[in-house]
Structure formats: C-alpha cells, structure tokens
C-alpha cells in the first residue's frame, strides 16, 4: 500500500477518485463512516434508554452528551499514545472497546449513574484511536489528496450521522432500545474486524515517528499538548477550526425552540435541522471538487464569514422558508475548513501528528458541547432569535480575526 506521492505542482488539484484509490485511506474511510453511523445510533438510543428508565429529560440530555467533554481530558492525558503505539492495534482496540460498551449497556441492567460513568470513561480513549486513524490518513495522502480526503470524511460523516439517526429511530421502534444498542455493537465489531484483517501492522517508526518512548503516557501527553499549543501557528489554526463550528452549532441548538416560538408548521424544525448539514455537503463538494488548493486557501476568511452572516439575518425574525435558506447558506460556509487542512498539517511536528489530530477533534467536540449551553443561557436574556444573531456576529468577528494572520502561504513547520 504505497501512499499517494506529493504532487510536483503546489496547485495540483486532486480528484476524489484518486483519493479513493489509495487502499489505506479507503479502508479507514469506509470503517469510520460505518462507525459514525454506529455512534449516532448508540448515542440517541442510549438517551432513549435513560429516558425510558428514569422519565427525566435532564438525564436523557446528559446521556446524549456524556461522551463529548471527557474526550478533551482523554486527549490531554493519553493523546501521546496515538504516536507511540502501532495504529492497527489502537484503531482495532478502539472499535472493540466501543462494541463492548454498547453490549454492556444493552445486556446489563446497571444503575443509570453507572451507565453514564461507563460511557464517560470509555470516551477518554476516543481521541487516541481517532488520532492514530487521522495520522495514518495524513501519511497515506499527500498534498491536495489529503485535503480531499478530509472533504470526503466531512461529507460521509454528515450522511452517516443522518443515517444513524434514522436507523436508531427505526431500530428502537422495531426492537426496543436495548436491542437497538446491539445493532450498534454489531457495526462496531465489523469495523474492528475489517481493520484487524485488512490493515497491515505498521510500527510508529514506519510512519516517521521518532518521539522518545521513555516516560509515562500521561507525562508525555501533557508535555506534547503544551508544545503544540505553545506553537503560535498551530494554536491559531486550531482555534480557527474550533470557534466558527462551535458557534454555529450553538445556534443550531436553538432551532427547535425558535421554530416553536414562531409557530412554524409541525415538524418543520426537522427541515431546519437538516439545512445546515445539507449546506455543508454542497459546500464541501463545490469547494473541494472545483477549486484548486491556492483558491481554497484564499477563500478561508470569506467562507468563514459566510458561516456567520446568514445567522445575523435572524434579527428580522424570519419565517420558516427564509430561515431554511439562511441556515442552508450558513452550512455552505463550513467549507472554509478545507483551506486550513494543508497549512495545519504542514505546521505539525512530525512526531506528534497523532496527538495533534486527537486534540483537534476532542477540542472541537468539547466546544460544540459547550456552544449550545452558552447560547441557551444567552437566549434567556435576548430571546432565541437574538442569541442566534449573537452567534452569527461572533463567527464574523472570528473571521475578521483570521483575516489578520491568515495567508495562503504554507506555515513554517513546527520544531
């Protein structure tokens, strides 16, 4: 399995077909898509199970988000393992661990507090095997192929989440929540087997890792995180990928309330909820497929601003149709992140790429979990529409901050 070589021309535009022809990426991509479907099914089904057991909307909401915030602590304490251990073992073990968790939730009638603690504990390991997976992709795809690989992951991830929601609803209705959890376990198991059988054993040294293996994982992880965040370029690029998405996600968390307050037709909130991911899919396809790398990187700031500007339109308290259009336009702006992928990868130290990817993902998940909470609190003071406007304004301000430092020129790699 030979990685795609670096194109000679810096503005070479890769194709999705070229990316999918790389065997390692194809395997990682397909199993991760199935796993995202399983994640969506498990999370929603577990939330239903907790609600059916307790009748508590609060505990149901906690069950839905309990696996998000612990990921940041897992990245801080264990993230270095993504660069210190063989990727096949890590990725296989991650899928096997989530499979076992789903089976325990399905088969063992444990107290709600224990089940919540189990999910939180297992989620600590998520950044480790996700970081190993992302590192393997970065080593397999070079140049613009890597950027299109990230685009494909975004597109497939959004579709897999929608499929998982639909599958979860159907499975709960047909089988009940506990049996539905076994469906997610079967999906995780298929991913673990596929990685174990089809991915060759690769030692970290074969992927260019030269990090010192001495010392404990926790100490190495904390030290590695400090080095990453101390780097000015890496820190800027992480914040640029975290903040707009977290703010728009916070606005998304208010959609149901906004639709209810404005007496939209029954079920219209579901249409509104689907507009952001639909816009994201279209934006990734257009920006990823039609634009050359320099053009994508030049459009980072305008596209980031596009993610926020339509939300400011909620100041006019628009109706159902206009609201849908505004959210669709906001979703198109998510494609801004494609122009940051190559500069971010170039800025990372070679021997801690896995930890950096784990930190990027866990930080994003944490802020996306906090975004709805913060904007929900703001909505109590300025109203739902006003809070959405605040989110849009904050995204535009973030785009302005990005304008002060972003350049299409690749950043200097970290030491």
* Tally of discrete structural domains: 2
Count of discrete alpha- or pi-helical segments spanning 4 or more residues: 19
Strand proportion, as a percent range, falls in under 5%
Q: What series of H and E elements makes up the topology?
A: HHHHHHHHHHHHHHHHHHH
Question: In whole angstroms, how far apart are the ends?
Answer: 29 Å
Largest sheet: none
Spans of at least 5 consecutive residues with low confidence: 1-8, 408-415
Q: What's the total number of strands?
A: 0
User: What is the share of helical residues?
Assistant: over 70%
Task: Give me the CATH architecture of the largest domain, please.
Answer: Up-down Bundle
Oligomeric state as shown: single chain
Describe this entry's structure for a reader:
Helices cover 77% and strands 0% of the residues. Helix 8 packs across helix 19. With 415 residues, the chain is mostly helical. The protein is globular and about 55 Å long. The protein has 19 helices and no strands. It has 2 domains: 196 residues, Growth Hormone, Chain: A (Up-down Bundle), CATH 1.20.1250; 180 residues, MFS general substrate transporter like domains (Growth Hormone, Chain: A), CATH 1.20.1250.20. The longest helix is centred in the C-terminal third of the chain and has 51 residues.
Notable traits:
415 residues, mainly alpha, Growth Hormone, Chain: A, 2 domains, 77% helix, globular, disordered N terminus, disordered C terminus
